[in-house]
Amino acid sequence: MELILEGIVEAFRLLFGGDADVYQIMLRSLWVSGLALLVASLIGLPLGVTLGLSEFRGRHLTVATVNAGMGVPPVVVGLLVSLLLSRNGMFGFLRLLYTNWAMVVAQVLIALPLVTGLSLAAVQQLDPGFRLQIVALGAGRLQAFWLLLKEIWVTLLAAVMAAFGGIISEVGAVMMVGGNIRGQTQVLTTGVVEETRAGRFPTAIALSIILLLLVFAASLAMTIVQQRGRRHA
């Protein structure tokens, strides 16, 4: 108990004491996960909605692949990205391994199936009669697509929230592709691992508390937007 209290005190000291290293790690965590979430959402939301509305040959296999991707261990994603970005890998010429961009790539691959799969599930929850009604009213393909998005956007935001929580708290993949280089690629999760290994438990607890506060703040902001949208709907 004394160790936990010491960690809480350390967290306040690091947050409000102007510790430059901690602020740098926080901003790096938010930048990497925020950019990855943006890319995954821009691809995954339209893809999930399209899969939910479309019928084509091989759809079941495609949906099964998306659902399987939601359960792939992040460490496997980290291994795949490491192999692709290594010196002898397919994209080794880009020299991205052990950089922030490598962590973004890994987190995009982790978040994309989550956003796509949950968006697909949201579309499948829609009453089929609602789609028929839109078509009967003369809506074009793009207009119908937009109206359906407006109908389920609250649920889609929940998909984005789930993806954000999954990637900002991820440690295995970002450590493999980022290298956990202090001052360059270290993020909050890998910082917790390093401090724990070094036996600096108060600092590890402090970084964990800061990570939890960031996740809670981001989730609170998205929940407020979600609930306002729900009331408006």
Structure notes:
By secondary structure, the protein is an all-alpha fold. It has helices at residues 2-16, 20-53, 59-69, 74-85, 100-124, 128-136, 141-168, 172-178, 188-197, 201-232. Helix 4 runs parallel beside helix 8 (172-178). The longest helix has 34 residues, at 20-53. The radius of gyration is 21 Å and the shape is globular. The model has no long low-confidence stretch (mean pLDDT 85).
Layout of helices and strands:
Layout: H1 2-16, H2 20-53, H3 59-69, H4 74-85, H5 100-124, H6 128-136, H7 141-168, H8 172-178, H9 188-197, H10 201-232
Number of domains: 1
CATH topology: MetI-like fold
Sketch the topology as an H/E string, one letter per element. HHHHHHHHHH
Determine and state the CATH class: Mainly Alpha
Structural class: mainly alpha
Q: Sheet with the most strands?
A: none
Secondary structure: helix percent: over 70%
How does CATH name the architecture?
A: Orthogonal Bundle
The CATH superfamily title: MetI-like
Which residue ranges are poorly predicted, with pLDDT under 50 across at least 5 consecutive positions? none
Quantity of strands, as a count: 0
Globular, elongated, flat, extended or rod-shaped: what is the shape? globular
Radius of gyration: 21 Å
Oligomer: single chain
